[in-house]
Design goal:
Elements (H helix, E strand, L loop, with lengths): L6 H23 L7 H31 L1
Helix pairs in contact: 1-2
């Protein structure tokens, strides 16, 4: 049986993914990483995944708070 993840950890993971999706293009702009299609795709995927996880974490947090 899977252990249920807390809304706080889901929000934290989502925040870190959005932060990664913002930092990678900045590093490409500063030419610390060479810009490539795959790095751009990873950045985009991290941003979208982080936004979705943040939304799920916020909804779980509200649901948990309503039960109290």
């Amino acid at each position: 049986m899977l252990k249920q993840t807390s809304p706080y950890s889901i929000l934290l993971i989502g925040f870190l993914l959005v932060l990664l999706g913002a930092v990678l293009p900045l590093l490409m702009l500063l030419q610390l990483f060479s810009a490539s299609f795959w790095l751009g795709a990873i950045s985009y995927t991290a941003t979208i995944s982080g936004l979705l996880l943040g939304l799920i974490g916020a909804a779980s947090f509200v649901q948990l708070d309503r039960r109290k």
